Amino acid sequence: MIKKPYASVLIIPTGIGASIGGYAGDALPVARSIAQVCDRVITHPNVMNGASLYWQCENIEYVEGYGLDKFASGEWGLESVTQNKIGLILDKGIERELKYRHLQVADAVRATLGINIQDYILTDRPLNVELRLANSGASWGTIGNPDSLLRAAEKLIREAKVNALAVVARFPDDTDSQALQDYRQGSGVDVLAGAEAVISHLLVREFQIPCAHAPALSPLPLDISISPRSTAEELGYTFLPCVLVGLNKAPQFTFAKNHDSLWSEDINALVIPANACGGSAMLSFSCLNTKIIAVEDNKTVLDISPEVLGIKVIRVKSYLEALGIMVLDRAGIRHDALNCDNELRMTKIN
User: Angle of helix 193-207 relative to helix 146-159, nearest 10 degrees?
Assistant: First the structure.
């Protein structure tokens, strides 16, 4: 009997102020660590994107959030690829100099990393992104011209035959906002993240191919006191490099089961913040045999516990402890067997 690969999913929802994963790629150490104890790790751009910084691991699958929800529900599978053919969509609302800064990133990634960025296209109308904050404190947003975005994507797919999409939309500059100042100081919510998710969700839902987004913004004024967790976004003119690296080998979505595809029932463990358990993927995995590990130290602005939803989980304090749970699970050892107060006596069922 061939032993199945041990696979896990790491979810840190975007735009909810997660103390780990709510900033510029600050959850990358978590993903890299999990990749050392699992054969395959499925996670989403919010975890992996660090603006000009990135880290590509062969066994980490970069899956957009809507696609991850469809994967968790069992409707879509994942199929690994050697390299994708990426098309770049630029918002017509991006100023000339800022547009060329992003095109230089694409050229640099092609020349330096060998990534296959095939063609780019400008939307026929400005996308007019607007940012919002919900009463809960989570961020979200709207696109003024979503039809323009869809037309650009459709043309790239039809004419350039691309099978992955990178999008750069012009986001509002709000350098004086308190929310931005809080974020740069390592507290509060990433006000851009919710709108970014709207853009990528729309394209993945419509075209069923990998997609990720990077916002176009004017460079911020120098602030030598900002938090290290936010500094990756201060290093250049664009957040695009990590998106292109992530999309390079992002798995394709499949609707046919075969020996090469990965499906939700193949997932051994899900790792998620303990107070952010209301997402679609989490609810889908709770109906399977997936071991759900809820991390208490990763605080968010939400207050949705697994107990409120009636979902059985293993609560741990930290991601370090979550790694231990997965090591034990992979070894076939009860997760409480290493506790000094573990009660080993069985109980009789009457």
Answer: 50
Global pTM reads 0.92
For residue 286, CA distances in Å to 278, 281, 293, 299 come to 11, 9, 11, 21
Architecture per CATH, 7-80+254-331: 3-Layer(aba) Sandwich (3.40)
Nearest Cα residue to 204 out of 244, 150, 161, 242: 150
The DSSP secondary structure of 71-126, one letter per residue, reads HHTTS-EEE--S---EEEEE-TTS-HHHHHHHHHHHHHHHHHH---EEEEEE-SS-
3-state secondary structure of 192: coil
Across the chain, which distance is largest between two alpha carbons, in Å? 76
What CA–CA distance (Å, rounded) separates 152 from 125?
10
Domain ranges of the chain: 7-80+254-331, 86-249
Mean pLDDT of 167-182: 75
